[in-house]
Structure formats: C-alpha cells, structure tokens
Amino acid sequence: MQDEVHPETDSNFIIGSRKWLHPATTQRHTSFSDVQVPFPSGRTALLSRSLSSPGKNEHRCIARHDLGYYGYVVVAGIYQAPTKLPSPLSTSYFFPALRHCFNILPILSAAVVGADTEYPQFVRPSHVNLQRHVRLVGRADAGSRDEQDVIKRAIIECHDRFAQHIDRVPPWDVTVIPLRPDPEADETRLCILFSYSHSHGDGTAGLPFHRTFLQGLQQHAATAQDFPANHDSVYEPPDRQLLPALEQVADLKISWSYLLGAIFSDRLPTFLRTALGLPSMTSVTDDTWLGSPISHDATTLRTGLEILVVKAVDIKAVISACRAHDARLTGLLHQLIVRALSQTLPKYTANVDSAPVAYDIVAQTPLNLSHLASGWASAADMVMAVSATQQLFPAASQQEPSNPAEEALWTGAKETGAKLAAAASTLTDQPIGLLRYVSEVRAWVVGQLGKARDCSYELSNIMMFDPEANSPQDTIGKEAEGKWEVGNMYFSQPANVVGPPLSFGVVSRKGGDLIVCLSWQCGVLDVSNEDVFAAEVLASLKSQVDSIVTGGNKC
Predict the structure, then answer these.
(1) Which residues fall within 8 angstroms of residue 326, CB to CB, at 6 or more apart?
(2) 35-38, strands of its sheet edge to edge
(3) If residue 441 lies in a helix (H) or strand (E), which one and from where to where?
(4) Coil, strand, or helix at residue 49?
(5) To 10 degrees, the CA torsion angle through 350, 355, 357, 361?
(6) φ/ψ (deg, to 5) at 152
(7) What InterPro entries does this protein map onto (predicted)?
(8) Is residue 547 classed exposed, middle or buried when 0-12, 13-18 and 19+ CB atoms within 10 A define those classes?
(9) Under a CB-based contact definition with an 8 Å cutoff, are residues 448 and 294 in contact?
(10) Which residue among 44, 488, 513, 520 is least enclosed by CB atoms within 10 Å?
(11) C-alpha distance across the termini of the chain, in Å
(12) How far is 143 from 132, CA to CA, in rounded Å?
C-alpha cells in the first residue's frame, strides 16, 4: 500500500508543478464580526459575524472572479405563470420567492470580505436589499429576434458581469425576461436566469436554486400579487451556519507518488518519470489542440456562446440507445464532441503555423464528489463539490467511420463512461486535494497567465432538472393544478481565462429537451472564425445525434 498524505482539498482543474507549502503554516484571517458598512437607503448594515473561511476551491473561485478572469455561472429556466401577471410587472413581485430562497439556502446570504487578498472570509450582512438580487428586463418580443437569440444574448450579458460590493452584497442575482406569450394560451412566459459566482456553488448548485425559487413562487403566489411596486426591499436573512467546505468533511487522501508527480511532472522527462513510478498529471501531447495560451485583457474580455437544443423525443431515443449498448450519456457526448472537433478543427486552423493534419484532443470532465462525503450535503443544497478528470483522445482514434454509429463509437462511449464512474468513486488522489499545498491561491491563479492550457475542452453535464425533486409535499403536483411550471433549462459557463478554450454545458428538463451551451473566451480559440466554428461544431454534434435517433448506429 502506498503511503498517504491526508489533504484537506480542492479545485476542478488539474494542477501541475507549483509553489507548495504545508497547510499547517497557513495563516487564518482575523474575524470580521461587528464590522459596519454603508447600506442603501441611508441605513447601516452590520456584518453580524463572520461565517466560515472558504475552502481552497472556493478561494480559487473568489480570486478568479475578483481578478476578472471568470464572471457569473448561469443556470436559466423558462417559467410559465398560471395566469396573467400584474401589469406593469415589478421586481417586488418576486420578493416573496427570494425571501424563501434566503430562508432555505444559507449560502445566498453570504458576502465575501477580503476577496482581493489571500485570506477571504464569508460574512453575513444583518440585512440584504432584495432589489440588488432581482433584475427585470423589458419584454423580449420587440424586433425580429427569435426567442433563442434573446435567451443567448441574455446569458452572455449575465456571464460578462462581475459582482459589485461583494463585501456587503452576496455575489448572485436573478434576471427576469418576459417572453413572447403563447398565442394559443392565456399565460405569461418568463426566462429566469440565476447568475452566481462559482464561489457560492458548482454548476449543479443552480438546480436546487431553481427548485427553491419555484417553491417560493408556488407558495407565495397570492402574496406576491399584493406586493406594491415600492414595497420595502430590505430583508433580514436567518442566521444559519454555512455547510463546511468539502475538504473539512471528506478525507481527500493524496499518495506520495501522486504528490511528487504533481510537483515534478512538467520537469522530468517521460522515461525518468516512468522509471520512478510517478503518474503523469497532464494528458497533453505536442499535437493537442489547446487554443492560444492563457491571457487576459479586461477591456476586451467577452464570452462567446452558441446553443444546441435536442428535442425531448430525440434525447429519449439517444438514452435508449445508450442503455442498449451499456453506455452512459456523458460518455457518448464525449465521443460525439471529439468527432465533431476532429471534423471541424482542420478547416478553421489551416492557416495556423505548424498546424497538424489531425489534432489530439484532451477532454476534461468535472466530477461531483458530494455523494462520497457522508452526511454532508443533499441534492437540495448549494455546495462546491467538484474535482475533475482528463482523458486523451489521440488523433488516430478519431477517424470518422463511413457509418457514424459503428461499434467503435459505442465501445468508446462505454469505456469513457466507465472511466468517469471510476474517477468519481474515490476521494483518493483527486486533483482538488492538491490545492491544499498551494500556499497563495490568488498568486497561483495570477501565475497561470501566459501558460499553455491543459486541455482542449470541458464537458460539464449537470444532468436533469426535476422541479418536484426535494419539494415539500404541499407543492408537489401543483403544476398540474394550474400553478407555475418550468420548461427548458440552460446551463452555461462564462469566458474562463485560466480554463479550457471550450466549455460544453449540458442540462435537461425531466421529460423535456436537452440543451447544450458551448461557450468560450472570445479571441482565444486560435481559429479563423470563432462564431462560425462553434456553430459548425454544434451542427456536427446534432448531425451525429440525428444519426443515432434514426437508427444509423446499430452495431
């Protein structure tokens, strides 16, 4: 058995050689209890007391957001009201639902003091201004833009915002966009976007928020109708403890060989690393497509986004095909994405100096470890519980067959799914555990500038949104009784300065469509036309899905 180092935790990126320091030497920030800060309307908000110190992964996300390297994560849903809403609609209509969210999800009332330091701290203001957490945008039916374009532009706008006054305003908000009404129904449709800093939850955290927000709408619909537009927006959130960071409740063991591999993997030649039995911490080869090196210009930072909708009937057929081949959907999506990139990249990198005929592709997949921390968090909680794993897809394995549904596709999907399941089944030698040894997280994040990226793309599948999961019994089934309903869901990441060049965000609504959001930092893909390139990648993905649906992939 290998000797083990017992780390505390963190990160969803593979870490190479860095400046390490044993965590016992890490200083703790002084308490911020009883600090007073200005509050809107001439009041003073008392930071009643400090909460917990962020874990290292939360700290990484705080630093990344404060530096302007990563904006808001967005999880959005299409809501359908049971009746006509008040006209004009005001933000105060949503105050009862927001209060419900504050009552159920304590992380929502956490601000961050010292975000620009190496010692940030979660704090809870004694009062919050609900107006700071809900935005109402004008009707989306003006002009000739279609609904999907309206949603796309709204997601981009949310991505490219950064938290203001984070020391007293928790870094998240809800954007409400009235959509074009259904001409065949007397009802109001809204696109509701939950935008939040990654420090307050991973991608899956957006699902419990929407379930809780929906519960608030269901339970307080009558109250909301009576709220005047000038209703007092100041609210005192309950004084509840935050859940501890994952590293405080999970034994993220790090073996000596894994630790030494992380420190020396980019310094030792392959033959020597192999002779010493040290694992490689990166799958990147000389021919791996990585986009351009990590860079940041605050004046030009912008998120690019393209969206693919796979209809419910089609995704049902795809899942049936996966079951028939003993494969998993995420494993299949990786195979389809790699094939789409291998078909598309050569066309858009032909003018790049020394571009290979075919590229190796390195895929990164976030792993949810919450199920391994017994008694810690449930599916109803907003937490940060991700690690990551990578897989190399060599160019030789990407040749498109004459029949895109041939056996190699399903063999690859099954193998990738099995690797992901194995990686997510253990707390030992997880990349996030290495963050315990990063002495200065903010400096480490800044130190990524100018380096090559460590993967080609990330696929983050936050699975299925079930509106009734973890719902109180008195709200279950109310949709069928003429209450609020939620349709399609969207999950998207912002421009990720220190991350992969491409991010695929996947989510589906139970019984509904599956939606893929492909996002990137504009200007870093190193291709001739980023928007057209991204659209063609998704078109290739859709073509392969269609082939599966029509039975073209029988083995």
Answers:
(1) 414
(2) 35-38, 44-50, 121-125, 111-113
(3) helix 441-446
(4) strand
(5) -110
(6) -60, -50
(7) Alcohol_O-acetyltransferase (IPR052058)
(8) middle
(9) yes
(10) 44
(11) 42
(12) 29
User: Cα 247 to the chain's mean position, in Å?
Assistant: 20
In this predicted structure, what is the pLDDT of residue 288?
94
| DSSP letter for each residue of 243-301 | PPPHHHHS---EEHHHHHHHHHTTTS-HHHHHHTTPPPS----TTB---SPP---TTT-
Phi, psi of 485 (to 5 degrees): -130, 155
Distance from C-alpha of 432 to C-alpha of 364, rounded to nearest angstrom: 14
Q: Can you tell me the distance from the alpha carbon of 464 to that of 450, in angstroms, rounded to the nearest whole number?
A: 37
Per-residue three-class SS string for 200-216 = HCCHHHHHHHHHHHHHH
Enumerate residues 6+ apart whose C-beta is below 8 A from 468. Answer: 475, 476, 477
Cis peptide before 237 (omega within 30 of 0): no
Angle at which helices 329-348 and 530-549 cross, to 10°: 140
pLDDT value at residue 509: 97
Q: What is the pLDDT of residue 100?
A: 96
Asked whether 159 and 74 are in contact (CB, 8 A), the reply is yes
> In a 3-state reduction of DSSP, which class is residue 468?
coil
Both tokens of residue 175? 């954007």
Looking at residue 36, what is its pLDDT? 46
Give the whole-angstrom CA distance, residue 160 versus residue 71: 6
**Residue 463's Cα: distance from chain center in Å?**
12
Q: Distance between CA 542 and CA 353 in Å, rounded? A: 30
Residues 6+ apart with CB under 8 A from 524: 291, 292, 295, 501
Q: Which of 192, 196, 213 is nearest to 205 (CA)?
A: 196
State the chain's maximal CA–CA distance in angstroms. 73
Read off the pTM: 0.88
pLDDT tens profile 224-264: 555 555 567 899 999 899 999 999 999 999 998 888 877 76
**DSSP secondary structure string for all residues of 343-385:** HHHHHHSTTSTT--SS-BEEEEEEEE-GGGSTTT--TTS----
> Is the Cβ–Cβ distance between 134 and 176 less than 8 Å?
yes
Core vs surface per residue 482-491: b (16+ CB within 10 A) or e: ebbbbebbbb
Judge residue 136's burial from the number of C-beta atoms within 10 Å of its C-beta, 0-12 exposed, 13-18 middle, 19 or more buried: middle
Rounded Cα–Cα distance for residues 462 and 330 (Å): 10
Q: Which two tokens stand for residue 236?
A: 């005192």
- Per-residue pLDDT at 363: 97
Candidates 461, 454, 534; CA nearest to 496 is: 454
Residue with token string 């105050």: 95
Residue with tokens 């290739």: 540
- Bridge partners for 31 per DSSP: none
For residues 257 and 277, give the distance between their C-alpha atoms in angstroms, rounded to a whole number: 7
- pLDDT, tens digit (0-9, with 9 covering 90-100), for 447-479: 999 999 999 999 999 999 999 887 655 555 544
Q: Mean of the per-residue pLDDT values for the chain?
A: 84
Contact 13, 454 (CB under 8 A): yes
Alpha carbon 195 to chain centroid distance?
10
